[in-house]
Amino acid sequence: MLFHLLYPLHEQFSALNVFRYISFRTFGSAITAILICLMVGPSYINFIKRKQMGQTIRDDGPKSHLSKKGTPTMGGGLILFGITASTLLWSDLANPYVWICLVTTLAFGGIGFLDDYRKVIRKNTKGLSGREKLIFQTLFALVAAFILFRLDPMMPSLKFPFFKDWSLNLGLLFIPFAVLVIVGSSNAVNLTDGLDGLAVGPTITTSMTFLVLSYCAGNLKIAEYLQIPYVPGSGELSIFCASVAMSCLGFLWFNSYPAQIFMGDVGSLALGAAIAVVSVITQNEILLVICGGIFVIEALSVMAQVASFKMTGKRVFKMAPIHHHFELKGWAEPKVIVRFWIISILLALVTLSTLKLR
């Protein structure tokens, strides 16, 4: 919005020429997002408390979590507000990629809202059924994938990191592949959101990594130098990624252990989808697996647990997702959280290193 309002005036006021630069608007988006969350956060938490929207706790979970019952939830609404406001304020709104990312994020947030609403109002820890949730997720992801397929004829190519000339033309298979990436990422982040700040930390590192990747992919000279796919217009997504990262950072102020408010599915489902759509647009789906390794491990731990129990009647872990396994082994909750954050930072560094290993 500011880009459209102020940049046209740069001939009269030369200082406004700064709005043409994505880097400047990225910093502006980051600062705006974190300030919004920090300033609105206390009022938002009080609102949730007044409405008695407290977290319900699974009876079969770790006993240490029972004390968290009643903690305000649906804090993801605060994150989505920060993302939406800062993105609309600082992005070039004529860029279709910005709208695809933002609308998809809000759509998945809507699914999470319905899920949280059922949990909070009906006091049902299960919320939406798995089938209902998957149908909505697939539908919204299908719309995003179809639009991307029609928008850019080069999008169906799957690029492999470490190899500059390796790519796979997916053709129409791009659509189901993109749906798989978006839905899978959304659910993986959702599974990770089980401890105070656990999902937020890796989301920050992953979105910051994709900030760099999207900026590089949208700059022709940088893309040619690094020998990575050039995606015209994708540079604007660095502004979106900055808003995601800093909205999460602002939310972490209230969500750090012991949490004053939980993210809820309204946040986790949306954040997973947001990161995934950026990875699809920038053709970095494989790097998402590396950078979002914490989310992948959490999802695989659940799959392994279910498969093992069905086939052998035995469990691989004391409890899944895997963060609960470490809790039951005696690790304090803050130790699990911080160690997972450390791993996420290392994975982000590995991901960025691939830019020079081609």
Give the SSE map.
Blueprint: H1 2-6, H2 22-50, H3 76-90, H4 96-121, H5 130-151, E1 157-159, E2 167-169, H6 174-192, H7 200-217, H8 220-226, H9 237-255, H10 265-281, H11 285-291, H12 293-312, H13 322-328, H14 333-353
Antiparallel strand pairs: 1-2
Helix pairs in contact: 2-3, 2-9, 3-4, 3-9, 3-10, 4-5, 4-10, 5-6, 6-10, 6-12, 7-9, 7-10, 7-14, 10-11, 11-12, 11-14
Please count the beta strands (DSSP E, at least 2 residues each): 2
- Rg calculated over all Cα atoms: 20 Å
How much strand?
Answer: under 5%
Helical content, roughly?
A: 55-70%
The major pleated sheet works out as: 2 strands, antiparallel
User: Between the first and last Cα atoms, what is the distance in angstroms?
Assistant: 37 Å
Oligomer: single chain
Task: Tell me the structural class.
Answer: mainly alpha
DSSP helix count? 14
Instruction: State mean pLDDT (0 to 100 scale).
Output: 91
What is the domain total for the residues? 1
Spatial order of the strands forming the largest sheet? 1-2
State the shape.
globular
Weakly predicted, low-confidence segments:
none
SSE sequence, one letter per element:
HHHHHEEHHHHHHHHH
